[in-house]
Amino acid sequence: MFSPVITNVTYINNTAQYGPNIASYPIKVKVYNAASDDIIFNNFGSGIRITEPISLALVDHFDNIMVLDNASQISIISSASHLITGTNVRRVTSGVATFDDLVFISSPGASGVEFPISSKSIDSEVVQADMTHS
After folding, report:
1. What's the whole-model pTM score?
2. CA angle 100-52-96, nearest 5°?
């Protein structure tokens, strides 16, 4: 799949499933309403419940949130050595999933611990093919 090159076009009252004007398929999960895509907890103790909800959005190639999507899910993934308690899979509402009952657990003294975020609605093969042809 290729992204279109569009010039001298004016959109009027146009909407699409994944956002306004022009849109494509979902390619990533990002932090909703944040300057950065990274969620960083500094000096955060293992086993402590998060106090602020984490909101994540499905976005397309043009960084539009999938505003009409109320069916996809976003997951925060644990591993054998780094666990999550609470609901780590959420369905999106208007393209956004909010996690508000999580506890991240890791080994004592661990630093730089990462918990990957994913969504089955992102087709990594299509995204990779698009990036190769960009």
Report:
1. 0.78
2. 55
